[in-house]
Amino acid sequence: MSELKKTLSLSQVVLFGLAYMTPIIVLGTFGVLAVVSEGAVSGTYLIALLAMLFTAHSYGRMASAYPVAGSAYAYVRHAIDDRLGFLAGWAILLDYLFLPMVIWLIGAAYLSSAFPAIPQAVWLLAFIAVTTLINILGLKLASVVNSVMMLVQVLVLVAFVGLSMHYILGDPTQPFWSLAPFLGAESSASLSTLMAGAAVACYSFLGFDAVTTLTEETKDPKRTLPRAILLITLIGGLIFIIVSYFVQLAAPSTDFANPDAAAYGIARNIGGDIFVSIFLIGLIVGQFASGIAAQASGARLLYAMGRDDVLPKRLLGRLGKFGTPVGGLCLSAAVALLALTMDVLSAASFINFGAFLAFALVNTAVIFHYYLKERRRGGLDTLWFLICPLIGLGAILWLMASLDHLAITLGSLWLACGLAWLVWLTRGFRQPPPALHFDEG
Protein backbone atom coordinates (compact mmCIF):
# COMPACT_ATOMS: atom_id res chain seq x y z
CA MET A 1 0.00 0.00 0.00
CA SER A 2 1.41 3.39 -0.96
CA GLU A 3 2.21 5.91 1.75
CA LEU A 4 1.36 9.58 1.82
CA LYS A 5 4.25 11.82 0.86
CA LYS A 6 5.68 14.10 3.52
CA THR A 7 5.44 17.41 1.67
CA LEU A 8 3.88 19.87 4.13
CA SER A 9 6.10 22.53 5.70
CA LEU A 10 5.51 24.38 8.96
CA SER A 11 3.94 27.38 7.21
CA GLN A 12 1.57 25.16 5.20
CA VAL A 13 0.44 23.30 8.32
CA VAL A 14 -0.14 26.60 10.14
CA LEU A 15 -2.21 27.92 7.22
CA PHE A 16 -4.34 24.76 7.26
CA GLY A 17 -4.96 25.14 10.99
CA LEU A 18 -5.92 28.81 10.71
CA ALA A 19 -8.28 28.06 7.83
CA TYR A 20 -9.93 25.33 9.91
CA MET A 21 -10.43 27.78 12.80
CA THR A 22 -12.24 30.21 10.46
CA PRO A 23 -10.86 33.57 11.76
CA ILE A 24 -13.93 35.53 10.64
CA ILE A 25 -15.84 33.82 13.47
CA VAL A 26 -14.58 36.67 15.69
CA LEU A 27 -17.15 38.86 13.91
CA GLY A 28 -19.81 36.18 13.83
CA THR A 29 -19.87 35.84 17.63
CA PHE A 30 -18.93 39.44 18.55
CA GLY A 31 -22.39 40.50 19.74
CA VAL A 32 -22.88 37.43 21.94
CA LEU A 33 -19.48 37.93 23.59
CA ALA A 34 -20.04 41.66 24.04
CA VAL A 35 -23.26 41.01 25.95
CA VAL A 36 -21.84 38.18 28.10
CA SER A 37 -18.61 40.08 28.94
CA GLU A 38 -20.34 43.46 29.39
CA GLY A 39 -18.24 45.05 26.65
CA ALA A 40 -14.90 43.37 27.36
CA VAL A 41 -14.61 41.14 24.28
CA SER A 42 -10.84 41.62 23.88
CA GLY A 43 -10.35 40.77 27.56
CA THR A 44 -12.27 37.52 27.18
CA TYR A 45 -10.17 36.56 24.13
CA LEU A 46 -6.96 37.37 26.02
CA ILE A 47 -7.95 35.07 28.89
CA ALA A 48 -9.04 32.36 26.44
CA LEU A 49 -5.74 32.67 24.54
CA LEU A 50 -3.66 32.26 27.70
CA ALA A 51 -5.63 29.15 28.66
CA MET A 52 -5.48 27.73 25.14
CA LEU A 53 -1.70 28.22 24.87
CA PHE A 54 -1.09 25.87 27.79
CA THR A 55 -3.49 23.33 26.30
CA ALA A 56 -1.90 23.77 22.85
CA HIS A 57 1.46 23.03 24.46
CA SER A 58 0.02 19.78 25.82
CA TYR A 59 -1.44 18.84 22.42
CA GLY A 60 1.94 19.50 20.83
CA ARG A 61 3.75 17.31 23.35
CA MET A 62 1.29 14.46 22.86
CA ALA A 63 1.40 14.81 19.06
CA SER A 64 5.16 14.36 19.33
CA ALA A 65 4.80 11.32 21.60
CA TYR A 66 2.00 9.68 19.58
CA PRO A 67 2.06 10.90 15.95
CA VAL A 68 -1.16 9.06 15.07
CA ALA A 69 -4.68 10.01 14.05
CA GLY A 70 -7.36 10.34 16.69
CA SER A 71 -6.06 13.35 18.61
CA ALA A 72 -7.38 13.48 22.21
CA TYR A 73 -8.84 9.97 21.98
CA ALA A 74 -5.51 8.43 20.98
CA TYR A 75 -3.45 10.47 23.44
CA VAL A 76 -5.60 9.65 26.48
CA ARG A 77 -6.02 6.02 25.47
CA HIS A 78 -2.29 5.43 25.09
CA ALA A 79 -1.09 7.57 27.99
CA ILE A 80 -3.72 6.85 30.66
CA ASP A 81 -6.45 4.26 30.07
CA ASP A 82 -8.65 2.79 27.34
CA ARG A 83 -11.84 3.75 29.17
CA LEU A 84 -10.81 7.35 29.71
CA GLY A 85 -9.76 7.38 26.06
CA PHE A 86 -13.28 6.33 25.13
CA LEU A 87 -14.72 9.22 27.17
CA ALA A 88 -12.29 11.60 25.43
CA GLY A 89 -13.60 10.27 22.11
CA TRP A 90 -17.17 10.72 23.39
CA ALA A 91 -16.36 14.35 24.25
CA ILE A 92 -14.92 14.88 20.78
CA LEU A 93 -18.08 13.36 19.32
CA LEU A 94 -20.15 16.06 21.05
CA ASP A 95 -18.08 18.73 19.28
CA TYR A 96 -18.18 17.08 15.88
CA LEU A 97 -21.88 16.27 16.09
CA PHE A 98 -23.06 19.69 17.24
CA LEU A 99 -20.47 22.02 15.67
CA PRO A 100 -22.23 22.13 12.26
CA MET A 101 -25.41 23.20 14.10
CA VAL A 102 -23.66 26.24 15.60
CA ILE A 103 -22.02 27.16 12.29
CA TRP A 104 -25.34 27.05 10.43
CA LEU A 105 -27.11 28.89 13.26
CA ILE A 106 -24.66 31.80 13.05
CA GLY A 107 -25.02 31.97 9.27
CA ALA A 108 -28.82 31.85 9.50
CA ALA A 109 -28.86 34.61 12.12
CA TYR A 110 -26.93 36.97 9.84
CA LEU A 111 -29.03 36.19 6.77
CA SER A 112 -32.16 36.76 8.84
CA SER A 113 -30.86 40.20 9.86
CA ALA A 114 -30.13 41.04 6.23
CA PHE A 115 -33.50 39.73 4.99
CA PRO A 116 -35.90 40.08 7.94
CA ALA A 117 -38.93 39.18 5.82
CA ILE A 118 -37.64 35.61 5.60
CA PRO A 119 -37.79 33.68 8.92
CA GLN A 120 -34.47 32.53 10.36
CA ALA A 121 -35.75 28.95 10.36
CA VAL A 122 -35.92 29.01 6.54
CA TRP A 123 -32.25 29.99 6.27
CA LEU A 124 -31.27 27.37 8.82
CA LEU A 125 -33.14 24.61 6.98
CA ALA A 126 -31.56 25.73 3.69
CA PHE A 127 -28.07 25.53 5.21
CA ILE A 128 -28.77 22.04 6.54
CA ALA A 129 -30.31 20.72 3.32
CA VAL A 130 -27.75 22.12 0.85
CA THR A 131 -24.68 21.22 2.93
CA THR A 132 -25.95 17.70 3.64
CA LEU A 133 -26.72 17.10 -0.04
CA ILE A 134 -23.24 18.26 -1.09
CA ASN A 135 -21.59 15.99 1.46
CA ILE A 136 -23.73 13.00 0.48
CA LEU A 137 -22.73 13.46 -3.17
CA GLY A 138 -19.12 13.43 -2.03
CA LEU A 139 -18.01 16.81 -3.36
CA LYS A 140 -14.97 17.98 -1.41
CA LEU A 141 -13.48 21.45 -1.24
CA ALA A 142 -10.07 21.37 -2.89
CA SER A 143 -7.11 22.91 -1.09
CA VAL A 144 -7.05 25.78 -3.55
CA VAL A 145 -10.67 26.59 -2.69
CA ASN A 146 -9.82 26.55 1.01
CA SER A 147 -6.98 28.97 0.31
CA VAL A 148 -9.37 31.29 -1.52
CA MET A 149 -11.83 31.08 1.40
CA MET A 150 -9.01 31.99 3.78
CA LEU A 151 -8.04 34.95 1.60
CA VAL A 152 -11.64 36.21 1.50
CA GLN A 153 -11.87 36.02 5.29
CA VAL A 154 -8.57 37.87 5.78
CA LEU A 155 -9.59 40.63 3.35
CA VAL A 156 -12.96 41.09 5.09
CA LEU A 157 -11.28 41.18 8.50
CA VAL A 158 -8.69 43.73 7.34
CA ALA A 159 -11.42 45.89 5.80
CA PHE A 160 -13.54 45.65 8.95
CA VAL A 161 -10.62 46.70 11.16
CA GLY A 162 -9.62 49.50 8.76
CA LEU A 163 -13.14 50.93 8.64
CA SER A 164 -13.45 50.61 12.42
CA MET A 165 -10.22 52.59 12.85
CA HIS A 166 -11.46 55.22 10.38
CA TYR A 167 -14.75 55.46 12.26
CA ILE A 168 -12.94 55.85 15.62
CA LEU A 169 -10.61 58.56 14.29
CA GLY A 170 -13.61 60.44 12.92
CA ASP A 171 -15.14 60.72 16.40
CA PRO A 172 -13.14 63.19 18.55
CA THR A 173 -14.85 61.91 21.71
CA GLN A 174 -13.69 58.33 21.13
CA PRO A 175 -10.11 57.48 22.28
CA PHE A 176 -7.98 55.38 19.94
CA TRP A 177 -6.29 53.58 22.84
CA SER A 178 -8.42 52.31 25.71
CA LEU A 179 -8.59 49.50 28.24
CA ALA A 180 -12.37 49.34 27.89
CA PRO A 181 -12.32 46.42 25.38
CA PHE A 182 -10.29 44.45 27.94
CA LEU A 183 -11.98 45.48 31.18
CA GLY A 184 -15.45 46.56 30.07
CA ALA A 185 -17.05 49.98 30.11
CA GLU A 186 -15.42 52.08 32.84
CA SER A 187 -13.43 48.98 33.88
CA SER A 188 -16.59 47.56 35.43
CA ALA A 189 -16.44 43.93 34.28
CA SER A 190 -15.80 41.50 37.15
CA LEU A 191 -13.48 38.51 36.97
CA SER A 192 -16.45 36.14 36.92
CA THR A 193 -17.93 38.09 34.01
CA LEU A 194 -14.64 37.93 32.09
CA MET A 195 -14.33 34.21 32.76
CA ALA A 196 -17.91 33.62 31.58
CA GLY A 197 -17.06 35.46 28.38
CA ALA A 198 -13.78 33.57 27.97
CA ALA A 199 -15.65 30.27 28.35
CA VAL A 200 -17.71 31.23 25.28
CA ALA A 201 -14.75 32.83 23.43
CA CYS A 202 -12.96 29.47 23.44
CA TYR A 203 -15.45 28.41 20.76
CA SER A 204 -13.41 30.50 18.29
CA PHE A 205 -10.31 28.38 19.01
CA LEU A 206 -11.92 25.04 18.23
CA GLY A 207 -9.94 23.31 15.50
CA PHE A 208 -6.43 24.40 16.53
CA ASP A 209 -5.62 20.70 17.03
CA ALA A 210 -6.98 19.66 13.62
CA VAL A 211 -3.47 19.63 12.14
CA THR A 212 -2.75 16.40 14.02
CA THR A 213 -4.59 14.68 11.14
CA LEU A 214 -1.75 15.76 8.82
CA THR A 215 0.91 13.72 10.62
CA GLU A 216 1.67 11.40 7.69
CA GLU A 217 2.00 14.30 5.24
CA THR A 218 4.13 16.65 7.37
CA LYS A 219 7.90 16.93 7.21
CA ASP A 220 9.50 15.98 10.54
CA PRO A 221 6.09 15.80 12.27
CA LYS A 222 7.48 15.28 15.79
CA ARG A 223 9.13 18.69 15.58
CA THR A 224 6.81 20.50 13.17
CA LEU A 225 3.39 19.68 14.66
CA PRO A 226 4.06 20.95 18.22
CA ARG A 227 5.37 24.24 16.80
CA ALA A 228 2.46 24.50 14.37
CA ILE A 229 -0.17 23.92 17.07
CA LEU A 230 1.31 26.67 19.26
CA LEU A 231 1.64 29.08 16.32
CA ILE A 232 -1.93 28.45 15.16
CA THR A 233 -3.26 29.13 18.65
CA LEU A 234 -1.12 32.25 19.11
CA ILE A 235 -1.79 33.76 15.68
CA GLY A 236 -5.50 32.98 15.86
CA GLY A 237 -5.75 34.46 19.35
CA LEU A 238 -3.94 37.65 18.32
CA ILE A 239 -6.29 38.02 15.34
CA PHE A 240 -9.30 37.67 17.65
CA ILE A 241 -7.91 40.19 20.17
CA ILE A 242 -6.91 42.83 17.61
CA VAL A 243 -10.11 42.62 15.57
CA SER A 244 -12.39 42.65 18.62
CA TYR A 245 -10.44 45.59 20.13
CA PHE A 246 -11.12 47.97 17.24
CA VAL A 247 -14.66 46.70 16.66
CA GLN A 248 -15.41 47.19 20.36
CA LEU A 249 -14.11 50.78 20.23
CA ALA A 250 -16.22 51.47 17.13
CA ALA A 251 -19.30 49.94 18.80
CA PRO A 252 -18.87 50.36 22.58
CA SER A 253 -22.54 49.74 23.37
CA THR A 254 -23.77 46.24 24.16
CA ASP A 255 -27.39 47.12 23.41
CA PHE A 256 -27.92 45.18 20.16
CA ALA A 257 -31.25 44.48 18.52
CA ASN A 258 -29.97 40.95 17.77
CA PRO A 259 -26.73 39.97 19.57
CA ASP A 260 -26.44 36.83 17.41
CA ALA A 261 -25.90 39.06 14.34
CA ALA A 262 -24.55 42.28 15.89
CA ALA A 263 -21.64 42.63 13.46
CA TYR A 264 -24.12 43.12 10.60
CA GLY A 265 -25.38 46.39 12.09
CA ILE A 266 -21.82 47.46 13.00
CA ALA A 267 -20.68 46.82 9.43
CA ARG A 268 -23.47 49.03 8.09
CA ASN A 269 -22.62 51.76 10.60
CA ILE A 270 -18.89 51.91 9.78
CA GLY A 271 -18.97 51.12 6.05
CA GLY A 272 -22.44 51.74 4.63
CA ASP A 273 -24.61 49.53 2.45
CA ILE A 274 -21.87 48.41 0.06
CA PHE A 275 -19.53 47.21 2.78
CA VAL A 276 -22.27 45.48 4.74
CA SER A 277 -23.04 43.45 1.62
CA ILE A 278 -19.37 42.53 1.19
CA PHE A 279 -19.14 41.58 4.87
CA LEU A 280 -22.26 39.44 4.66
CA ILE A 281 -20.99 37.59 1.60
CA GLY A 282 -17.62 36.97 3.26
CA LEU A 283 -19.16 35.69 6.48
CA ILE A 284 -21.75 33.47 4.79
CA VAL A 285 -19.17 31.98 2.41
CA GLY A 286 -16.88 31.31 5.35
CA GLN A 287 -19.69 29.72 7.38
CA PHE A 288 -20.88 27.64 4.42
CA ALA A 289 -17.39 26.27 3.70
CA SER A 290 -16.80 25.66 7.39
CA GLY A 291 -20.15 23.89 7.72
CA ILE A 292 -19.31 21.52 4.85
CA ALA A 293 -15.97 20.60 6.45
CA ALA A 294 -17.41 20.27 9.96
CA GLN A 295 -20.29 18.04 8.88
CA ALA A 296 -18.02 15.87 6.74
CA SER A 297 -15.55 15.47 9.63
CA GLY A 298 -18.30 14.66 12.10
CA ALA A 299 -19.86 12.09 9.80
CA ARG A 300 -16.42 10.49 9.31
CA LEU A 301 -16.02 10.15 13.07
CA LEU A 302 -19.49 8.62 13.38
CA TYR A 303 -18.63 6.23 10.55
CA ALA A 304 -15.38 5.20 12.30
CA MET A 305 -17.26 4.57 15.55
CA GLY A 306 -20.01 2.66 13.72
CA ARG A 307 -17.54 0.56 11.74
CA ASP A 308 -15.73 -0.37 14.97
CA ASP A 309 -19.04 -1.36 16.67
CA VAL A 310 -18.82 1.47 19.18
CA LEU A 311 -22.05 2.92 17.74
CA PRO A 312 -24.81 1.06 15.83
CA LYS A 313 -23.06 -0.38 12.77
CA ARG A 314 -26.16 -0.82 10.61
CA LEU A 315 -27.00 2.88 10.86
CA LEU A 316 -23.58 4.55 10.98
CA GLY A 317 -20.94 2.01 9.95
CA ARG A 318 -21.75 1.72 6.26
CA LEU A 319 -21.11 3.89 3.22
CA GLY A 320 -23.80 4.99 0.79
CA LYS A 321 -24.06 4.84 -2.99
CA PHE A 322 -21.55 7.67 -3.46
CA GLY A 323 -19.03 6.24 -1.01
CA THR A 324 -19.97 8.70 1.73
CA PRO A 325 -21.19 8.06 5.31
CA VAL A 326 -24.86 8.85 4.65
CA GLY A 327 -26.02 7.70 8.09
CA GLY A 328 -23.66 10.06 9.90
CA LEU A 329 -24.51 12.95 7.58
CA CYS A 330 -28.25 12.49 8.10
CA LEU A 331 -27.78 12.20 11.88
CA SER A 332 -25.77 15.44 11.85
CA ALA A 333 -28.56 17.13 9.87
CA ALA A 334 -31.20 15.84 12.28
CA VAL A 335 -29.23 17.07 15.31
CA ALA A 336 -28.89 20.49 13.68
CA LEU A 337 -32.68 20.85 13.79
CA LEU A 338 -32.27 21.54 17.52
CA ALA A 339 -30.99 24.96 16.45
CA LEU A 340 -34.61 25.88 15.73
CA THR A 341 -35.06 26.17 19.50
CA MET A 342 -31.61 27.50 20.49
CA ASP A 343 -29.58 30.69 20.24
CA VAL A 344 -25.86 31.04 19.44
CA LEU A 345 -24.80 31.48 23.08
CA SER A 346 -26.50 28.30 24.30
CA ALA A 347 -25.32 26.22 21.34
CA ALA A 348 -21.69 27.41 21.48
CA SER A 349 -21.52 26.97 25.26
CA PHE A 350 -22.85 23.41 24.97
CA ILE A 351 -20.21 22.21 22.53
CA ASN A 352 -17.50 24.02 24.51
CA PHE A 353 -18.30 21.61 27.37
CA GLY A 354 -17.16 18.72 25.18
CA ALA A 355 -14.07 20.58 24.05
CA PHE A 356 -13.11 21.48 27.63
CA LEU A 357 -13.49 17.86 28.72
CA ALA A 358 -11.17 16.70 25.93
CA PHE A 359 -8.69 19.52 26.67
CA ALA A 360 -8.63 18.61 30.37
CA LEU A 361 -7.89 14.96 29.58
CA VAL A 362 -5.08 15.86 27.15
CA ASN A 363 -3.41 18.07 29.78
CA THR A 364 -3.66 15.14 32.19
CA ALA A 365 -2.24 12.76 29.57
CA VAL A 366 0.97 14.83 29.36
CA ILE A 367 1.56 14.35 33.09
CA PHE A 368 0.88 10.61 32.89
CA HIS A 369 3.05 10.01 29.82
CA TYR A 370 6.09 12.20 30.46
CA TYR A 371 6.20 12.85 34.21
CA LEU A 372 4.86 9.56 35.62
CA LYS A 373 5.66 6.91 32.99
CA GLU A 374 8.88 8.26 31.48
CA ARG A 375 9.94 9.91 34.77
CA ARG A 376 11.15 13.06 33.05
CA ARG A 377 11.48 15.18 36.17
CA GLY A 378 14.56 17.34 35.63
CA GLY A 379 14.45 21.14 35.98
CA LEU A 380 12.88 22.09 32.65
CA ASP A 381 11.13 18.76 32.33
CA THR A 382 9.18 19.47 35.53
CA LEU A 383 8.13 22.81 34.04
CA TRP A 384 7.08 21.38 30.66
CA PHE A 385 5.55 18.09 31.79
CA LEU A 386 4.03 18.89 35.17
CA ILE A 387 3.63 22.62 35.87
CA CYS A 388 2.47 23.73 32.40
CA PRO A 389 -0.13 20.95 31.96
CA LEU A 390 -1.35 21.53 35.53
CA ILE A 391 -1.85 25.22 34.74
CA GLY A 392 -3.62 24.26 31.52
CA LEU A 393 -5.82 21.78 33.39
CA GLY A 394 -6.71 24.31 36.07
CA ALA A 395 -7.54 26.99 33.50
CA ILE A 396 -9.74 24.61 31.50
CA LEU A 397 -11.63 23.45 34.60
CA TRP A 398 -12.19 27.07 35.62
CA LEU A 399 -13.51 27.90 32.14
CA MET A 400 -15.76 24.84 32.23
CA ALA A 401 -17.18 25.95 35.57
CA SER A 402 -17.80 29.41 34.05
CA LEU A 403 -20.14 28.06 31.37
CA ASP A 404 -23.82 28.85 31.78
CA HIS A 405 -25.90 26.39 33.80
CA LEU A 406 -27.77 25.04 30.77
CA ALA A 407 -24.50 24.14 29.01
CA ILE A 408 -23.16 22.41 32.12
CA THR A 409 -26.41 20.49 32.58
CA LEU A 410 -26.61 19.37 28.94
CA GLY A 411 -22.90 18.56 28.86
CA SER A 412 -23.14 16.52 32.04
CA LEU A 413 -26.07 14.59 30.56
CA TRP A 414 -24.01 13.91 27.43
CA LEU A 415 -21.12 12.66 29.58
CA ALA A 416 -23.50 10.46 31.64
CA CYS A 417 -24.85 8.93 28.41
CA GLY A 418 -21.29 8.20 27.29
CA LEU A 419 -20.45 6.58 30.60
CA ALA A 420 -23.60 4.44 30.47
CA TRP A 421 -22.78 3.39 26.89
CA LEU A 422 -19.23 2.53 27.97
CA VAL A 423 -20.56 0.34 30.80
CA TRP A 424 -22.74 -1.51 28.28
CA LEU A 425 -19.94 -1.92 25.72
CA THR A 426 -17.53 -3.29 28.31
CA ARG A 427 -20.15 -5.45 30.04
CA GLY A 428 -19.69 -3.57 33.29
CA PHE A 429 -15.97 -2.86 32.69
CA ARG A 430 -15.22 -6.59 32.49
CA GLN A 431 -13.70 -6.22 29.03
CA PRO A 432 -11.81 -3.41 27.26
CA PRO A 433 -13.75 -0.98 25.05
CA PRO A 434 -13.41 -1.49 21.29
CA ALA A 435 -10.59 0.52 19.72
CA LEU A 436 -11.33 3.22 17.17
CA HIS A 437 -9.33 3.48 13.95
CA PHE A 438 -9.27 7.03 12.61
CA ASP A 439 -6.77 6.38 9.83
CA GLU A 440 -9.26 4.63 7.54
CA GLY A 441 -12.36 5.64 5.59
TrEMBL record:
Domain of life: Bacteria
Alphabetical UniProt keywords: Membrane, Transmembrane, Transmembrane helix
One GO-annotated biological process of the protein: transmembrane transport
Transmembrane segments: 12-36, 42-63, 84-111, 117-138, 150-169, 189-208, 228-247, 274-302, 322-342, 348-371, 383-400, 406-425
Domain Amino acid permease/ SLC12A: 13-368
GO cellular component terms, semicolon-separated: membrane
Membrane topology: Multi-pass membrane protein
Protein name: Amino acid/polyamine/organocation transporter, APC superfamily
Localisation per UniProt entry: Membrane
Location (main, coarse): membrane
Native source species: Modicisalibacter xianhensis
